[in-house]
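To the wet lab folks,

You asked to see what we're planning to order before we commit. Fair enough. Below is the target structure as tokens, and below that is the sequence we designed to fit it. If anything looks off to you, flag it before the synthesis order goes out.
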């Protein structure tokens, strides 16, 4: 399989690249900083991995089996108006560019699937309700981000299957995961002082891998 990935230098994306390379798939990294990506994925360790900035996205997406869209700045920071705008605008813009590249590819070279990351923030928050895929969207800031993010992905043309993965906080002890950060005593009290519960996922990237590489799920 040939898989193109945005957000490959992020915590989840880097794990996915490792898994895909280990399984013998061809990986194409779509990045906004080619130098950063080449530093993260050196040729000696990742032979055959193709890396390209935005000017090369269309070329790298063309002929791919699937595209995994993970790009977006982290939300675990202080939400100034500028940060909030960047959180939303970056996700919507990157997804739009990916969709445009897919839609402009010749039909016989168009990816079979677009796996686009989104978040459980789509549903808003509640201290009494559990949400599933049939639940309506919320109306807070993160819900609005997710709705705009998903709407951008839904513009992909018929013929490319769309998978929207609404995930939660990545819970992992390694650098980049929320568990390692939250277990710092000084951070723990600040992080959880007003939080009763939160949706989490492990760093396991099997769902992204399966959606982009298992033939029966590409249809």
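Sequence we intend to order:
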């Amino acid at each position: 399989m040939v898989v193109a990935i945005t957000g490959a230098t992020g915590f989840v994306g880097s794990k996915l690249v490792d898994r895909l390379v280990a399984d013998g798939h061809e990986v194409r990294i779509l990045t906004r900083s080619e130098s950063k990506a080449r530093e993260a994925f050196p040729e000696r360790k990742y032979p055959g991995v193709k890396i390209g900035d935005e000017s090369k996205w269309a070329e790298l997406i063309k002929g791919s089996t699937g595209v995994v869209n993970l790009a977006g700045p982290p939300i675990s920071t202080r939400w100034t108006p500028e940060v909030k705008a960047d959180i939303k605008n970056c996700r919507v813009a990157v997804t739009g560019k990916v969709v445009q590249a897919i839609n402009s590819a010749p039909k016989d070279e168009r990816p079979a699937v677009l796996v686009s990351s989104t978040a459980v923030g789509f549903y808003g928050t509640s201290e009494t309700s559990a949400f599933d895929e049939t639940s309506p969207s919320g109306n807070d800031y993160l819900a609005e981000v997710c709705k705009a993010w998903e709407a951008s992905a839904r513009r992909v043309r018929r013929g490319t299957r769309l998978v929207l993965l609404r995930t939660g906080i990545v819970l992992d002890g390694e650098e980049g995961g929320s568990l390692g950060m939250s277990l710092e005593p000084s951070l723990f009290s600040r992080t959880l002082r007003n939080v009763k519960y939160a949706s989490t996922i492990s760093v396991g990237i099997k769902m992204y891998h399966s959606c982009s590489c298992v033939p029966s799920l590409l249809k």
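Structural context that might help your review: Residues 81-104 form the longest helix (24 residues). The chain is about 35% helix and 15% strand.

Thanks,
Computational group
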